[in-house]
Sequence to fold (504 residues):
Amino acid sequence: MKKKNLISKTFSVLALTSLFSMNTMAQDKNYVSISPTDTPEQIIEKAANVVPTQRQFEWQKQELTAFLHFGVNTYTNREWGDGKESPSIFNPVKLDAEQWVKTLKDAGFKCAMLTCKHHDGFCLWPSKYTEHSVKHSPWKQGGGDVVKEVSDACHKYGISFGVYLSPWDMNSRLYGTEAYNDFFVNQLTELLSNYGEVNEVWFDGACGEGPNGKKQEYDFVRWYKVIRKLQPKAVIAVMGPDVRWVGTETGRGRETEWSVVPNDNLDQSAIAANSQQEMISAPTGDMTGQDLGSRDKIQKAKALVWYPAEIDVSIRPGWFYHETEDSKVKTANELMDIYFTSVGMNGVLLLNMPPNRDGLLADADVNSLSDFKQLCQQTFGKNLLEGAFVKTNGKGKSKKIIDDNYDTYITGSNEKLFFEFKTKKPITTNVISLQEDIRKGQRVEEFVLECKDANGQWNVLANGTTIGYKRLIKFRQVTAKEFRVQITKRRLSENISEIGLYHL
Ligand code: FUL
Fold:
């Protein structure tokens, strides 16, 4: 069956998803409807043909993105404020947004996202629509604008800028009324009009009002339309249609992470409820929610959508800066583990780096991030397969798979792909990296890495399920000259961009 016939042009299951049709950049579509008459094989083929929008692809390629949690909580030493804080407590006398952004840029981060307004409602920019902002703080005699300083620094250093604007607002009198949606749109419009290009907008699902608290119906679709109009390149994350919250704040994605999931996962109230889970906790081992996009799951779907995972975690136990946590900053090795379980599990890492009361990133955080960068460089600076002789499905020809260029790829057609690598000298390795060209869909379901021992026997070193944009696996260290990677299960002909072996 031809791909074109498989893609419904009349998808309109939810108001939310109708927004996808506003995307004019896409090649193929990032959603598909499932018809009751589709066979199981047709559904798998449909899933394999769902692709990211251009903005989703650009977002995914970043790999490393950062959160900057900063605001009145930095001064009250709390994680959640109450909206009653006096703006007079906000006084970051040494604030240097260039230090924040340069630290991130030097460490390889591609985006900085500022908490422009957290749940306490305090605005880091002089919003016209509230008095609860920097304009009534002593900082720069009320003439300062943190959003401007951070966005200017991002544009100067060439990384993208993201906006966190909390839907829950404990300060606004309007919260709980229909007028709050107008207020919110006004604030969003300020942020998306006055600070240059914005590449991500983050809507948090958290709300601690409780059963007797205020109830606010958020007019999400209206908000999304404002974003699409003012900043068409921005992805809308978490309570939004483009990027999915991975489901924990531990830095761990899923071993099997499908970016194509049933549309049912876009249920906004369910996402909101889940985001109230513990902030930093070890993986529970509970498999609930572990399977989002398996063959079984998608068979029951009404529609499928490209909805990739973002993994948010803080470099410290809390999201905001607390001096008592200076000794609890994650080490470079811990950050590397997180890199493996986020970026290495087909996700984008959103690492929080909270500035302190002076308005600077603390030494402990800066040092740890720079050690992490060094470790990344040492580990991934050079593909140990570089210069190896490569055979694809038994034939020696293309080196596209080890050319360090994501844009060149090899497609498995009738036969599943297998690659054999022979290095000039023995290499010592314990890490594999694999990448699919996701612009053609996510297709690999299982793969295996082997090496040839001294007796000419192939031994399994690692196996995995999904690859997606990137899959990293650490395995027992070996020294050998011959390696083999086989794609053992796939949804449709796979497109492999890169394979690398490394040593950590
Ligand atoms: C949560 C919030 O409640 C936290 O304070 C933090 O902003 C985190 C990223 O999201 O839902």
Q: What stands out?
A: Confidence is low (pLDDT under 50) at residues 1-27, 265-288. The two ends are 45 Å apart (CA to CA). The CA atoms of residues 181 and 355 lie 30 Å apart.
